[in-house]
Design goal:
3-stranded antiparallel β-sheet
């Protein structure tokens, strides 16, 4: 369980179209080349400390003739943002993926001192 010391809690969220590979014959659709994609997300404003981030697939378009394999996660989370990582493998063909994300964490107050 994460306990937050601040009385100011921020929630930021967004939606990102990660790719649309069927239109241009990209690697996720053809199965040739890198099967991992990383997308940097920046928060609307920095959190006071590292927030909790949840990432989910909100739209997927996959070839029905192959197994549907997908892994999505948040990496390199920091107060300013994070990286969405999408992976697939084997013969899975992915046409399009959209990811939604939610970040919850402490915010700085105007009264906070910044002593450096």
């Amino acid at each position: 369980m994460r306990r937050m010391a601040s009385h100011l809690i921020g929630v930021d969220r967004g939606s990102v179209m990660l790719f649309s590979d069927y239109q241009d014959g990209g690697a996720m659709w053809t199965g040739e080349g890198p099967r991992e994609l990383r997308r940097v997300v920046e928060f609307a404003e920095p959190f006071r400390s590292v927030p909790v981030v949840q990432v989910s697939i909100s739209m997927w378009d996959m070839d029905r003739r192959t197994n549907q394999r997908a892994d999505i996660s948040a990496e390199m989370v920091n107060p300013e943002g994070f990286v969405i990582v999408f992976r697939t493998w084997s013969d899975t063909r992915v046409a399009r993926i959209r990811a939604d994300w939610l970040a919850i964490g402490e915010l700085s107050a105007e009264e906070d001192w910044n002593v450096e």
